[in-house]
Amino acid sequence: MSFLTNILKFVVVLSVQLVGLAASKSDVSSSTAQVYWKSLFPHTPLPGVLANQLIYPSDLSGDYFRAILKDMVTKFRTIEVDEKFKYDSPKVESDSANKLDYDNVHKDVFFFETKLHEGANMDAMELTIGENNVAFLPRSIADTIPFSSQNFSQILTYFSVSPESPVASVIKETIELCEIPALKGELKRCSTSFEDFLDYAISLLGKHVQIFTPSLETKSSHPNLTVGHVTQLVGKSVVMCHKLNYAYAVYLCHSLKRTHLYEVYLIGKDGSRGTSLAACHQDTSSWSAKHLAFHVLKVQPGTVPICHFLKKGTIVWVPSP
């Protein structure tokens, strides 16, 4: 059975199940998701970055899931390219990313904090990679879908995916990434629903928070970027949520102490303008010595703060001043 046939079967199965659940679960609608947001943040409008990822009742149809299908197929066909820029997690090691051609890793995939100043030139090619546009599932649906390595075979059956297909590899990789134990001083969780995503951030930071996300829209695949103004976002702890490759929105959220977060305005010679977010990890002593950052920067763990930009689609929670 072909890869595309397996995906089509997955779309049909999941569409039928979601539509059936929509008829019996009142919290499927985006309006209920907005109500849930309002119950937590009564004086704060739902940010567009979240509102754009909600499933609307009219979207619970074949058209919506055909759009998911198109996105999935595109992502899986380009997964080897995406792997080159999968550096948002401090657990990425050079031996676990041995498919990389180190000679072609651009110089600013990791950088020192001293480079974040006005006028600096940045080779930040990872900022040009498109984000995964699939939407959040409501908790009432997400909780019915298994999400663990122990249930991997069941997940493949549920999605009608062949174990040898590229989809199976991505599903396995995403779940395993979520199951990697947290580093010392780190708290982490993979949220598979809108409600769980909100609940976890609140459990770590409380309700007095702000949300930031990169807004830079590049006009070429490799723009020459210059740093404009740089603003440090103050907070004893920040929660960074990275959107993973999956059939629906799954975010790996983790809180790392001693991490400086900066909002960086970037200007490109191609006309690109907008903000990105840079995370600078002050303590890398618990990172593996095989981490790609140490290979790129030629330093040892725990010796100097290491920074990287956050990819498009990343959502960062910061305590309000």
From TrEMBL:
<keyword id="KW-0732">Signal</keyword>
<dbReference type="Pfam" id="PF03181">
    <property type="entry name" value="BURP"/>
</dbReference>
<feature type="domain" description="BURP">
    <location>
        <begin position="110"/>
        <end position="320"/>
    </location>
</feature>
<feature type="signal peptide">
    <location>
        <begin position="1"/>
        <end position="24"/>
    </location>
</feature>
<dbReference type="InterPro" id="IPR044816">
    <property type="entry name" value="BURP"/>
</dbReference>
<dbReference type="InterPro" id="IPR004873">
    <property type="entry name" value="BURP_dom"/>
</dbReference>
<protein>
    <recommendedName>
        <fullName>BURP domain-containing protein</fullName>
    </recommendedName>
</protein>
